[in-house]
Design brief:
heterodimer, A: alpha/beta, Peroxisomal Thiolase, Chain A, domain 1, 11-stranded mixed β-sheet, 3-stranded mixed β-sheet, 16 strands, B: alpha/beta, 2 domains, two-stranded antiparallel ribbon, 3-oxoacyl-[acyl-carrier-protein] synthase activity (chain B), acyltransferase (chain B), Beta-ketoacyl_synthase (chain B), Ketoacyl_synth_C (chain B)
């Protein structure tokens, strides 16, 4: 296997700021972007907090037509893709477009617009036999999740395989993983990869209320997302989008691109256990980590940072701690492991891509972002979670893991350029 | 089943060992094939509750489907109709492949699940939206979070079967059904032994229909015999359908080791993107996809014995496809039989090309090209099989698909005994 996969561009729309500099500023300072929900009136809901993006699409170059036609989550992806392509210095017009693809993840896609228009056509939930006349003219785009990848493919002029990936909360990791495989195995030279979600709407908040998966710490939103802390009480919903330019390494070198780092390994497995429940032992996540490391030809002892799924639910953080111990062994106790969901919330399908961008930036800056709000150790979560303060460290190889409804367990390994060749 | 066969990449061929169909023209593979071979059209007036007054009049509904016969109660209550179809089809495919827990008990990571999904759990979602907006947030049930999203079918099939291998979801255009099969073949090349793969859709809940009304090319003709007639002067759009197919795709030696019936080889695939509803450009996109799939399969154009066309049903799209087949297959296009059995069932979005792949395998086994129902006067230079089935020795089939958001894909299937001539 000689084809290697470089990250040459990153772009992001995240809570706390649009663009890579604002995002890194937030993470390295350990600030939180969680607050009371403003996108709709959350009165009467169990969880009334979220990590929202202050996003002005026109200010980021989207036209009025684009704003009207595309859902908020697609707008995030378009703005992030624009930044990523610019960051990569990629002249998309000069590329062989049939060798350029798009792979973007989303967990719930156009739910926000689907719900918005539903209210009109159902006369506010009164009709089963809905009245089609009030429906918006772009509703079909919200209905079809492929509109995400399609919009970004149009934007960058891609003509290769274009796919939307939807594996719940691992969608972002998996979309990047599929892109990685496509380049490594020779089907593509360039892939615009990432994920986006804008799930902060009544139906999504209600469905997580119903299973008490989200935090009800409504009185203290800034400290509500507390991954690995003994008093954690659920995740705080977020939104956002992140996009990377992935490129075959020699292709990147040939055009003189700056290589931020490499994606070296990826694996995903199902837990075949429960749609929302997780096993005590985390065997399947451990297997995903082991296979991703084996694919990357990186020994578990060489991992310098673990970017955790760390959603802040009781069961997730226990499960993940067990899985990391199982896969990294004794080294698990010596490697820093943090959850940026403490700061930017859990944006469902988008978060995996946002976390990969955090890993790219951690490698670039040689800084591990912290787990904000970590106060009280939980005896069952006894690793080094980098409480509150970012840490400067020499970083060469990092691991990002994710876990999602449906049983998906995924892992991605990234290495700094100049790491050992295969 | 051993978890990793130590063979070089290319030698890990993917073969189809099981087929399960839940389609408008048959809720078993046998019934589907009988109706397909006979050229029966089951297009009919929409009868799903709540759709009576909507402008969509004709569709392909799955009738006489009793999910309780094939799926346990505990899965039924927490899943949408689209997952009922997918789980039922998966059960049929696994039975057909004679693949049971005893085969992978010792290696659960060797079997994965991949589905494509174009619209998710629309009926379940509409019901919960009605609870939320009609009655209040406390009335949203606990299963909304796992029934509506695109990953529901993959997750539930994985749990029901105990499949812990790589699990994926491409939430895609129609062509995503073929992309899912390719995804399975690539996963098998990397070392997985078997993938349960395919797509099933249930897009006929009233609100889902309202969403589809935004598609300019949706046929609103009220006469079932005239609503969907691609490749004719009377082409007036496409008719949507429910249902789909799941296949068991296995690494060849692994299938042979356990004495499984090898039905066909998944020989080659390629996908391209040419923009939503830009049908003229889909000509070039399809040509690249066909050429790519033939190269991937090491197959010469002359070896193609039958083409299962996308047959979209509007003149610009039909012309583009006819020209693409001529461009890609050269003079062979003048003699190769082309068929589109989906004119008798409608287009089940991502399920449609998987049904075509299933029909292609069955056609090769039975040595007949099934006809294209409702199509009589063909306006393009194609040998479109109409009227009744045509006996022919079929060793290699080409399946084409395009999506409303701009994807094009081609898949080459071969009879297991077919050797490449080139």
């Amino acid at each position: 296997m000689t084809r290697r996969v470089a990250v040459t561009g990153v772009g992001i729309v995240a809570p706390g700021g649009v663009g890579v500099p604002a995002f890194w500023d937030l993470l390295s300072a350990g600030r939180t972007a969680t607050r009371g929900i403003t996108l709709f009136n959350p009165e009467g809901f169990r969880s009334r907090i979220a990590a929202e993006c202050d996003f002005d699409p026109a200010g980021h170059g989207l036209t009025a037509d684009q704003v009207a036609a595309q859902d908020r989550y697609i707008q995030f992806a378009m703005v992030a893709a624009e930044e990523a392509v610019r960051n990569a210095g990629l002249d998309t017009g000069a590329e062989n477009r049939w060798r350029m693809g798009v792979s973007l993840g989303t967990a719930v896609g156009g739910t926000t617009r689907l719900e918005h228009d539903y209210v009109d056509v159902s006369h506010v939930g009164q009709l089963w036999d809905v009245d089609h006349r009030p429906a918006g003219r772009h509703l079909q785009r919200a209905f079809s999740p492929s509109s995400l990848a399609s919009a970004v493919a149009e934007q960058v002029g891609a003509r290769g395989p274009v796919q939307t990936v939807s594996t719940g909360c691992t969608s972002g990791l998996d979309a990047i993983g599929y892109a990685f495989h496509s380049i490594e195995e020779g089907r593509l030279d360039v892939c615009i990869a990432g994920a986006s979600d804008s799930p902060i709407s009544p139906i999504t908040v209600a469905c997580f209320d119903a299973i008490k998966a989200t935090s009800a710490n409504n009185d203290d939103p800034a400290h509500a997302s507390r991954p690995f802390d003994a008093h954690r009480d659920g995740f705080v919903m977020g939104e956002g989008g992140a996009v990377l330019v992935l490129e075959e390494l020699e292709h990147a070198r040939a055009r003189g691109a700056t290589v931020h780092c490499e994606i070296r390994g990826y694996a995903t497995f199902g837990n075949a256990y429960h749609m929302t429940g997780l096993t005590q032992e985390g065997l399947e996540m451990a297997e995903a980590i082991n296979r991703a490391l084996a694919h990357a030809k990186v020994d578990s002892s060489q991992i310098d940072y673990v970017n955790a799924h760390g959603s802040g639910t009781q069961q997730n953080d226990r499960h993940e701690t067990a899985a990391v111990k199982k896969s990294l062994g004794e080294h698990a106790y010596h490697v820093p492991m943090s959850s940026i969901k403490s700061m930017v919330g859990h944006s469902l399908g988008a978060i995996g891509a946002i976390e990969i961008v955090a890993c790219v930036l951690a490698l670039a800056h040689q800084v591990v972002p912290p787990t904000a709000n970590y106060e009280t150790p939980d005896p069952e979560c006894d690793l080094d979670y980098v409480p509150k303060t970012a840490r400067e460290l020499p970083l060469r190889s990092v691991l990002s893991v994710g876990s999602g409804f449906g049983g998906f367990q995924s892992a991605v390994v990234l290495t700094r350029q100049g790491g050992r060749a295969r | 089943m051993s978890s990793l066969h130590q063979l070089p990449h290319r030698q890990r061929r993917s073969v189809v060992t099981g087929i399960g169909v839940i389609a408008p023209n048959g809720v078993s593979t046998e019934a589907f094939w009988k109706a397909t071979r006979e050229g029966m059209s089951v297009l009919d007036l929409v009868t799903r509750e709540g759709c009576e007054n909507l402008p969509l009049k004709v569709a392909g509904e799955v009738r006489d489907f009793d999910p309780a016969v094939l799926i346990e109660e505990r899965y039924l209550v927490q899943t949408d109709r689209f997952t009922h179809f997918a789980m039922a089809a998966a059960n049929l495919a696994l039975d057909d492949a004679r693949l049971g827990r005893a085969d992978y008990n010792d290696s659960p990571f060797a079997v994965g699940v991949v589905t494509a999904a174009g619209s998710g759990g629309g009926e379940f979602g509409q019901r919960e939206l009605q609870h939320l907006w009609g009655q209040g947030s406390k009335h949203v049930g606990p299963y909304q979070s796992i029934a509506w999203f695109y990953a529901a079918s993959t997750g539930q099939i994985s749990i029901r079967g105990g499949f812990k291998g790589p699990c994926g979801v491409v939430a895609s255009d129609e062509a995503g059904g073929l992309d899912a099969l390719a995804h399975a073949a690539h996963t098998i090349q990397r070392g997985t032994d078997a993938i349960v793969v395919g797509a099933a859709e249930a897009p006929l809940a009233p609100y889902s229909v309202v969403c589809q009304l935004g598609y300019d090319d949706l046929s609103k003709v009220a006469d079932p015999d005239r609503a969907y007639r691609p490749f004719t002067d009377a082409a007036c759009g496409f008719v949507p359908a429910e249902g789909g197919a799941m296949l068991v795709v296995e690494e060849e030696t692994s299938a042979l080791d356990r004495g499984a019936p090898v039905r066909a080889v998944v020989a080659g695939h390629a996908a391209t993107f040419t923009g939503a509803a830009r049908w003229c450009e889909s000509r070039e996109g399809l040509v690249h996809a066909i050429t790519g799939a033939l190269e991937d399969a090491r197959c010469a154009p002359e070896e193609i014995d039958v083409v299962f066309a996308d047959a979209f049903g509007v003149p610009a799209a039909d012309r583009a496809e006819a020209l693409a087949i001529a461009d890609a297959l050269g003079r062979h296009a003048e003699v190769v039989p082309v068929t589109a059995p989906k004119t008798g069932t409608g287009r089940a979005y991502c399920g449609a090309p998987v049904l075509d792949a299933a029909a292609a395998v069955l056609a090769m086994e039975h040595g007949v090209v099934p006809p294209t129902p409702n199509v009589f006067e063909v306006s393009y230079d194609l040998d479109l099989v109409t009227g009744s089935a045509r006996p022919a020795e079929l060793r290699t089939a080409l399946v084409l698909s395009r999506g409303l958001m701009g994807s094009n894909a081609a898949l080459v299937l071969r009879k297991s005994s077919a050797e490449s001539l080139s």
